[in-house]
Amino acid sequence: MTRRNSILFFGIMWCAHVNAMNIVNTLWPYDTLIRPTFTNDYPWQIALYGEKGFHHAQGYNDDSHRVNVLHIWNAQQNALAMLEGAPKDSPTYQLRSALLDSDNGTRGRFIIDGDLNLDFNFSLATRYFFADDWSIGIYLPFYGMSLTNVTLTDLTPNQDNLDKLVRRLLTDNIVGNAQFLAGLHIGNWKRQGPGDLTILIDWFRDFYQNKPFLQCVRVNWRVGLIVPTGVKENEDLIFAVPFGYDGSFAMPFGLGLDLTLGKHFKCGFDGQLTQIFGNERCRRIKTQENQTELFLFQKTKAYIDYGLVQRFNLYIEFYNFLKGLSFVTGYQYLKRGANDISLLTQEFSTNIANTSPRLEEFTMHHMIIKGTYDFGVHNEDMRARPELSIYGRLPFNGMNSALIPTVGAVFSVDF
Fold it and tell me: Rounded mean pLDDT of 221-232?
């Protein structure tokens, strides 16, 4: 590697790309259905990604029913239960005592609605090809997300004295009470920042076939490291998901098989497993089993052991059927196994904390369509090969997840 190329490589390293977030379907820029075409004809590839949600997120609950994004874990929020489990000398405990035995299954209940939006996702990726079959790629995204149109519907009746007591002391000023007692903001927010840095080593090899129909078999595998540079979950905002794996390192491993059938047809399969390493930080937890996820008051240090992330792709492609124009249709399935939380304190119960529905497994299903134009077909002797892709990621089902339909574009240059 020349001194000039070394400087360029390590300079671009810090401008790289992304991985998938918690329960939200943000882009994996090294996703085999999205990433640019790569060969070893050129030593370098630089790609710029841009993506935006064209509709707010659709939520899918534990039964895979379509719900508002803030109903994924609970259809209703329990404001009386959120006061449980507080230290006896705290204002929260005193307020709960003043409310007497007022929980009849309706008082203190809220329906909270809102719209989760992907305002933008910009990413820069770089890949260096070496030793014929090997490459190293580096990816880092930047996100803009927002929660808007948050509305609270108080289900507490206003009939008897206990109804009026709960309304006067608690629910009529639920936003102010949550902010004062627990530093919890129940309302709109807007967040921007980087995602996790991903470094991937890829190996691929084309096995050309002397057959009229099956012309080439490409085998590839990859392994990498995800570094927690992303914005973490904000515990003081409702549904403020992390821009990555929430402060954890992770290791993805994937392999795939691509078949070239005839002159203009390809198909393939790709699978990837990602092991997320556990981490310790201050988190909001359940201290009573009947508490609901958006109304959690207690925070403590806790360690989370994450479930394995599995992602599988299937695709068919009409390849260079009109000059350099190609068209891909793909299906993607993603699943993360259940998490396990361990509290680093004896003040609260680990068993109760593990009843949180946000720790349960989640799934996502997508259809992905992409059109690509390879400008290199017009001159094979060009010093650089530009390529432009426009794609859509269309979620259609899931469980315990928030799925945003998106459109995006990828512009890459091999040189």
Answer: 97
